[in-house]
Amino acid sequence: MTEATHLTPPSFEFPIELGAVRAFVQAMESGNPAFAGAAPVVPPTFLVTSHRWSTKENRIDHGIPRARLLHGGQEFRFHGEPPRVGHTLTAREQLTERYQKQGRRGGTMEFVTVTTEFHDQSGRLVAEMSATYIGTAPKEEHA
Questions:
Q1: In which element (H, E) is residue 141 found?
Q2: E strand map for the chain
Q3: What is the pTM of this model?
Q4: Is 42 within 8 Å of 118 (Cβ atoms)?
Q5: Is the C-alpha dihedral spanning 54, 67, 62, 83 positive or negative?
Q6: In the beta sheet, which residues pair with residue 94?
Q7: 62-74: pLDDT as tens digits
């Protein structure tokens, strides 16, 4: 059973800055020449850093307590060429899926998918990032 909640917080600007991209590429230890130079394309996973430019008001509250939170996966979709340094994207999160499943060790697990859309300055959708979060069962359900 899938239940999608359509809560959409306000959008936020995500500037693609050279220093941030260089630091990210260095941390990845990538030698890909597409990620170098004065106006490189961003590595696909760089979109994760967009949260550094958002505020609490711009984020989805998925409702899973941090003590029970697991990261279940991340997916990136691009609709054309990846963004480059110097671009400013407008990002907006939405809760796209919520469902529960019985855990193998007992208790109910909650799955939540949050999708962030990235639009360029003309309003065109350039990328999407989906993160799946898993809420493990509270300890009293394991008994």
A1: helix 139-142
A2: 12-15, 69-78, 88-102, 108-119, 125-135
A3: 0.85
A4: no
A5: positive
A6: 115
A7: 889 989 999 999 9
